[in-house]
Amino acid sequence: MLVENSKLWKISPILISFNQLRIQKISPPVQPSPAPTPMGQNPPVSPMPNPMPLPTPGGQTLPITINPAKPWTNEPSGFAVLFDCGFDDATCGGKLDDTYKSKGSTLNVVQDPTAPLSKSNVMRSSLFYPNKTGGTQLGYYPSQPVKQIYVGMFWRTNLEFSGNKVEMNKMFFMRGPSSNGFFGQLNYGMPGFFKIGFSHNSGTLNNDHTCAADLGLTCYPNVGSGIVSTGQWHQLEFYMKGSTTTTSRDGILRWWVDGVLTGNYTNFNYGPSFNELIWSETWDGFGNGTGFKADAHHFIDHIHISAP
Ligand SMILES: [Ca+2]
Questions:
Q1: Structurally, how many domains does the chain consist of?
Q2: How far, in Å, from the CA of 152 to the mean position of ligand 1?
Q3: What CA–CA distance (Å, rounded) separates 92 from 27?
Q4: 3-class DSSP state for residue 214?
Q5: Residue 267 sits in which domain range?
Q6: pLDDT of residue 301
Q7: What is the CATH number of the domain that holds 267?
Q8: I want to staple 284 with a disulfide (CB 3.0 to 4.6 A). Which of 133, 143, 224, 229 is the partner?
């Protein structure tokens, strides 16, 4: 539920071609050999091939084994916990800002015995078809801006989650005083599958030296596949380091899906700090709530936020 510049998505040639891909594909895509991708370097920005077997939509159980005592395997060493919640309550006892007072309507706690970390209560944020608005905005605001931030969560959609028409389904914003970027689900081209990507989502930043589309708005997975399937639990981990200035190209954008490094951009313009961590689908934004074919639900079992 945010005002955002969705029109930018409409003019991206990358996303137009991606949409065409979606229309054409009716069977699992041929998997070309992945190009070698040295760690720490930014390869070309084309969507990555998928070298791994696709998870089964609706498999529900987390596809990896975690250590419940140390589940956040990619949290940088030395980071201190800012926030940790297993969603026994939809707003974590009021610690999350329920900006649009959606608790009890489109924001609820439900029970899921397959929840990976903190059974069985999970948060559920819903768009009830054919409504074109819904979901929630849940915000965590650190007491002071931080230069680096880590966020981990166990998350899934419902099996029928079909995605919106703007090709990027917003999920989690990592904002600073002058930034509004988010992680979300990019349409993959097959029903039941998406890729986790990032957009800086701003007309005042330019990352076209390393990411795709106008102003480098779309950062695709450039190391791992980033593929997620509907109905199945996944572990998502996000790490960002703010750039010194909005043009200094020394920020870091990095994310993991099910423990596997998926995106790694080390010359990123985004910063200099972070002060708002917000779950929001922006289903009331331009086109964001349209295109679904059934109820759409996001479920979060647990969320963990830390910083140096
Ligand atoms: Ca839980």
A1: 1
A2: 13
A3: 42
A4: helix
A5: 78-307
A6: 98
A7: 2.60.120.200
A8: 133
